[in-house]
Amino acid sequence: MKKVYKSFQEAVTEIKDGSTIMVGGFGLVGIPENLILALVESKVKHLTVISNNCGVDDWGLGLLLENNQINKMIGSYVGENKEFERQVLSGELEVELIPQGTLAERIRAGGAGIPAFYTPAGVGTPIAEGQEVRRFEGRDYMLQTALKADFSLVRAALGDRSGNLIYNKTARNFNPMMAAAGNRTIAEVEDFVEADFLDPEQVHTPGIYVDGIIVGIQEKRIERLTVKQEA
Amino acid sequence: MLKQIDKGLVRETIAKRAEQEIVSGYYVNLGIGIPTIVANFIQQDKEVVLQSENGLLGIGVSPLKEEVDPELINAGKETVTASSGASFFSSAESFAMIRGGHLDLAILGGMEVSENGDLANWMIPGKMIKGMGGAMDIVHGARKIVVVMEHVNREGASKIVKQCQLPLTGKGVVSRIITERAVIDVEKDGLVLMEVAKGWTVEEVIESTNATLGISDELKVATY
């Protein structure tokens, strides 16, 4: 049975200065809201963060930025916050930009025991400079290495004592690959099935990838509310 | 040759023409900006599945206020619905689908397109670099890449160029360019003018294009 944490502080206590962490989510959807808040409180610094985006100024990973806890950010689209721009321009923050599909696959490879792979994304562009390019079946591809992390912080809708996880809609995004690519994976779940187990047919992330679980109430902030006018 | 044209109307004209690229039965990825508007003009009788790279196959219409689910968004981070027959999946699965050549068409925005189909649409040197998102993967994945953009930039310079000055998103990836003035195909030996929009002449299009433009034998005028 998996460790079920009592507090978010306890859940992040092993994360030390200089750790590399993966944080699930696309925009603000599917981010482990309370684990991030606990990291802010823990004041851990010099973090390398691997996440598709970097939150907004007052929420998500933006809070860690604001606190100067991130040294390096690895993501695919990161400019939604002003503080991010300021820290990049002042040299306080190092950034590595990776095509979104390459980022997803590098993380998947990290959890799947594949050290590297070839992808067409980025060939002929500035990001291919200095990279190994090889031709297969008449097309050029570039070599990309796997990504792993000391800790992965993921968010799911449901979890059980076996560590099995189920995500909701587009909140799945990077979470399943990150769960597998973390040396230690902590899952923040909205609902914890205490007495029973999740339906094995419905499980998205098998429990083997998850080391600890904690239940948290999510704010689920919306970045761009778009609605249809009632007729 | 100064024409006062409403910006919104220009974008709508481009989006409506781009909709004609979508064939019933297609799986399509629409980029951010003008491409997103294309969805509003898809003919009712076409059966089209829109893919969103954050992990949704089957983007539906915008939700009513009471239907909004904060965990159901498109790649532009806007709240959406899932259409009938939709599916959700991880980002790795989503890009496997994209790179694996399973999408019929991607319609993307552009800053510059060159004579040989190079696309630049992610970065302006000297300005804050936000990232390429999924664009570099998509240009190598979808079977056909159509770029929709205004014909000229704010300074009036052609966005269709001999060689891109901006850092590339992909090399030789564009099949067709659609602007408010013309439809131009990228062929093996260069650009070919296929259609001219209403209100423009062939001469005006050639004059406002900073690249060598062949003219198709089947050139059509005033088509949109």
Automatic annotation (TrEMBL), chain A:
Presence of keyword Secreted: no
NCBIfam families: pcaI_scoA_fam (TIGR02429)
Keywords: Transferase
Family of this protein: Belongs to the 3-oxoacid CoA-transferase subunit A family.
Organism, scientific name: Oceanobacillus jordanicus
Domain of life, per lineage: Bacteria
Record has Transcription regulation as a keyword: no
Protein name (record): CoA transferase subunit A
One GO MF term: CoA-transferase activity
InterPro entries tied to this protein: 3-oxoacid_CoA-transf_A, CoA_trans_fam_I, CoA_transf_BS, NagB/RpiA_transferase-like
Automatic annotation (TrEMBL), chain B:
InterPro entries, A to Z: 3-oxoacid_CoA-transf_B, CoA_trans_fam_I, CoA_transf_AS, NagB/RpiA_transferase-like
Subunit architecture: Heterodimer of a subunit A and a subunit B.
GO molecular-function terms, A-Z: CoA-transferase activity
Keywords (A to Z) from UniProt: Transferase
Name of the protein this chain belongs to: Probable succinyl-CoA:3-ketoacid coenzyme A transferase subunit B
PANTHER family named among the record's database cross-references: KETOACID-COENZYME A TRANSFERASE, SUCCINYL-COA:3-KETOACID COENZYME A TRANSFERASE SUBUNIT B-RELATED
Superkingdom, natural source: Bacteria
Family: Belongs to the 3-oxoacid CoA-transferase subunit B family.
NCBIfam families xrefs: pcaJ_scoB_fam (TIGR02428)
Coiled coil region boundaries: none
PROSITE patterns the record matches: COA_TRANSF_2
Keyword check for Transferase: yes
KW Transferase (keyword) present: yes
